[in-house]
Amino acid sequence: MSESNSTPRGQAVKSLSRSTLVMRVLADRPMRPAELSRELDKPWATIYRTIRVLTEEGMLQRDPDTGEYSIGPMMWAMATSYLRDHPVLGVGLGHLEQALPHVPGLLKVTERSGHNAVTLFAEQNPQAGAVTRIREQYRLPLHCASFGIVLLAHSPDEFVEEYLAGPLPAVSPRTITDPKVLRTRISEVRDQGHAASRAELQDDNGSLSVPIRRKDGAVVAALTSVLPLPVFDDAADQSLHLTRLSDTATRISEALGWRGTYA
User: Fold this and answer.
1) What residues pair up with 140 in beta bridges, in sequence order?
2) Coil, helix or strand for 90?
3) For the chain, how far is it from start to end, CA to CA, in angstroms?
4) Which residues are within 8 A (CB) of 22 and not within 5 positions of it... i.e. 6 or more apart?
5) Is the peptide bond before 211 cis (omega within 30 degrees of 0)?
6) Which DSSP symbol is given to 135?
7) What residue spans define the domains of the chain?
8) pTM of the entire structure?
């Protein structure tokens, strides 16, 4: 006999699910309880009770000036443990530090989390001119930018088809949202072993991305160089930085136990 949501265990699972949903939405942008209630189509009292408990536990925090709630310090404390123990960063930080001085911009590592590309590491070369970053770049839909396309292209075929069924939001005017065009691009990335995006998120830079593989060959992350457009648009410079990026990804992949041919 299965347990219903009326049992204490069922109620706890339902409450946990609601709390997770609230934190997912507030991770995108801060909101007041009334906004969150409308966003989730849930009663205000239910949402407020959930927010109050999460705030008491440090999972959320309230801005006293705006009344908006956002992700709290306890979530960051838990996230630092995730990054500390992450296998890619565990073997890769030394290689990333060696590569960073040769990148005239930003070096980053992302991984797939559901339908999003989430940033694990992002460092600007202090000797180079700063590239423009936007808040949303730390969590973007997979069909956006070179790193998302690399992660999407190396996801299981069933996942790719489910993802392309949409909806596919246009994060910028240059974001490809046509499933047919995306399928062609995914095929190209699989064949070429890398992806490039020109001025998709910002007008003054472009990005190059390559996959990082684990022991069994599966792609676990994308390594990306975000470059100023004069560098990105120069064919010789782009080729040089793509080679350096691929070499770094190879070293990290080999440290994870991979012994294949890089592509």
Assistant:
1) 117
2) helix
3) 51
4) 36, 40, 47, 50, 51, 54, 60
5) no
6) G
7) 8-77, 86-255
8) 0.81
* 133 backbone dihedrals φ, ψ, rounded to 5°: -120, 150
The CA distance from 58 to 80, in Å, is 15
Q: What is the pLDDT along the chain (263 residues), one digit of tens a residue?
A: 344 445 555 665 577 788 989 998 898 889 999 999 999 999 999 999 999 999 999 999 999 999 999 999 998 888 888 888 899 999 999 999 999 999 999 999 999 999 999 999 999 998 887 666 654 467 899 999 999 999 999 999 999 999 999 899 988 899 999 999 999 999 999 999 999 999 898 888 999 999 999 999 999 999 999 999 999 999 999 999 999 999 999 999 999 999 876 44
What kind and span of H or E run contains 219? strand 219-228
The total of other beta-carbon atoms located within 10 Å of residue 105's CB is 24
Q: Does domain 86-255 have CATH number 3.30.70.20?
A: no
The domain defined by 8-77 folds into Arc Repressor Mutant, subunit A (1.10.10)
Closest CA to 112 of 74, 72, 140: 140
CA distances from 40 to 33, 113, 203 (A): 10, 21, 34
219-228 and 60-62 strand pairing: unpaired
